[in-house]
Write a structure and sequence with these properties.
single chain, 186 residues, alpha+beta, Nucleoside Triphosphate Pyrophosphohydrolase, 2 domains, three-stranded antiparallel β-sheet, 4 helices, elongated, binds zinc ion
């Protein structure tokens, strides 16, 4: 039994149908069925994201569907069963921008958690690659309303990314992004 962050925890046991109790798991109140000795952990959705840095610019998409349509984000999405995190980031990069990168060329940039306006949340793992390690031409995919490179000046001027009080940038830690631009900019 799993459920997504932001949804209600189970009130009955999916195995025996009895009502569930609660138990303390490392300080977290967690649904528990004493009869089945079953604990129902909250599943955390994980998205793998690929940041591409080109000179003083970084590749961003506008979300085309789901929570927060129109919000800026780095290309990325949920990890599929059997997939490694870098492979998921590379696949999502291709699906959303048409660019291709070898998962082995992606470097870990950082991790974090993002909360969406609909109450859901996800963990994210950010990878980064320089444009020189990426092939193809940017062309937004079905999940993206737009995809293009943004300069640091454009980011600073954009209401979503320029104001330190409201920096969200979708599912990306903006500080990680700006750090990657400094480190990987050519
Ligand atoms: Zn039970």
């Amino acid at each position: 039994m799993t459920y997504v962050v932001g949804t209600e925890p189970p009130t009955y046991c999916p195995y025996c149908g009895d009502g569930v109790d609660e138990r303390d798991v490392d300080g977290v109140v967690t649904p528990y069925c004493p009869g089945c000795d079953a604990t129902f952990f909250e599943e955390q959705l994980v998205s793998a994201r690929a940041t591409v840095v080109d000179g003083d610019s970084v590749l961003l998409i506008e979300r085309g569907r789901g929570a927060d349509v129109g919000v800026l984000a780095t290309p990325g999405g949920f990890v599929e069963p059997g997939e490694t995190l870098p492979a998921a980031a590379a696949r999502e990069l291709h699906e959303e921008t048409s660019l291709r990168v070898d998962p082995d060329d992606l470097e870990l940039m950082g991790t974090g958690r993002i909360a969406f306006s609909d109450g859901n949340a996800q963990l994210f793992v950010n990878f980064v690659a320089p444009r020189s390690a990426v092939t193809g031409t940017v062309d937004p995919g079905d999940d993206a309303a737009d995809a293009r490179f943004w300069t640091r000046i454009e980011l600073d001027a954009h209401p979503e990314t320029g104001d330190p009080e409201t920096r969200t940038l979708g599912a990306t830690g903006l500080e990680q992004l700006l750090g990657a631009m400094e480190e990987y900019g050519e």
